[in-house]
Amino acid sequence: MTTPSLLILPGDGIGPEVMAEVRRIIDWFGAERGLNFDVSEDLVGGCAYDKHGTPLHDDTMARAQEVDAVLLGAVGGPQYDALDFSVKPERGLLRLRKEMDLFSNLRPAQCFDALSDFSSLKKDVVAGLDIMIVRELTSGVYFGEPRGIFTEGNERVGINTQRYTESEIARVARSAFELAMKRDKKLCSMEKANVMESGILWREVVTEVGRDYPEVELSHMYADAGAMQLTRWPKQFDVIVTDNLFGDLLSDLAAMLTGSLGMLPSASLGAPMENGRPKALYEPVHGSAPDIAGQGKANPIACILSFAMALRYSFDQGDEATRLEAAIERVLADGVRTADLMGPEGGTPVSTSGMGDAILSALDTSL
Ligand code: NAD
Fold first, then answer.
1. 130-257 is classed in which CATH architecture?
2. Which atom of ligand 1 is nearest to the CA of 286?
3. What is the pTM of this model?
4. Top mutation candidate among 14, 47, 80, 286 for ligand 1, by most atoms within 8 Å of CB
5. In which element (H, E) is residue 254 found?
6. Smaller CB count within 10 Å for the chain: N or C?
7. What tens digit of pLDDT does each residue of 39-63 get?
8. Comparing C-alpha atoms, which of 196, 188, 252, 257 is closest to residue 226?
9. The domain 1-111+261-367 is classified under which CATH number: 3.30.360.10, 3.40.50.970, 3.40.718.10, 3.90.1700.10?
10. pLDDT tens digits, one per residue of 268-293
């Protein structure tokens, strides 16, 4: 069997700092679990612009298309704010998402028991929460035509169009069913079939795709009711699939049930490649955090959890992903905290590498 390949793009700001801890974790899995990756590293964002005059070099793009998974840190920074739109650091990330055709965005909302006080909801509502929102990422109202601001008579009118083809719905539904098969086999699809034709089609197509997954319990919910249920009793859900607009809102809502930005991973998946693995980009939800960059204060957990997602969804190493997540849970239960996780009771935060050290020793203990 060939060694699975991983392209690492640390990016800007705290990106390289948090990614350095992920590199240590990857080395640990190689040394202790015999899990080896063919790792290459390259530039994206502002640092790529500084070297090549573009936020993503063509060679890097080509490599991203070849590898089994891409792991990205963060891009951007105030020093790039004045750049032309076409070469801004974020354009590098957008190009990756577009050319890899990453239509399925996975945003987990997972609440570690030790951090349940960070949630704005009651502890028993969020403790142990582990749900996954699958958001369609490349179509819907953010892309539909016609769009624009037009003049009609003596006033202006703003237009965006919600548009979904059957195949666009079917492919994101299939990716959500595949995920549900790797989890608790429960999928809830959310739309507004009561008031939108695109919602009626969404519901029909998801139901049709569901016939290929008889083991998965499929339910449907209107997205507004879904938002209420997510705040009332989020643990009723396992996987949720929804469109681009509703997914944007619902995934932010669900993510914040669990506390800090420094804890949130994500994945964006595309069509299966020849080897059966989906094209995949894993990244923390946070940005380059220029306010704390270079100070060793960044929380590396979001990036490390992104690697755990890669283990589970690209490399079929669910048990090793669980081992890594359990190590993080243990470290947090022991009270180890980076500055962003300090509660009102205070204490001494650990540095980025201090958090990496703690997770590595928890991994050692797991053997
Ligand atoms: P940000 O996520 O970088 O930071 C928001 C706040 O959260 C800051 O106070 C920061 O210190 C804190 N924070 C973020 N990640 C943290 C971590 N891992 N540990 C501890 N604290 C953390 O968002 P922003 O300030 O709006 O944007 C900063 C730059 O990042 C901008 O250039 C923006 O365009 C870019 N950005 C990039 C991405 C990405 O690469 N995917 C996403 C969002 C923003």
1. 3-Layer(aba) Sandwich (3.40)
2. 2
3. 0.92
4. 286
5. helix 244-256
6. N
7. 999 999 999 999 999 999 999 999 9
8. 188
9. 3.40.718.10
10. 999 988 888 899 999 999 999 999 99
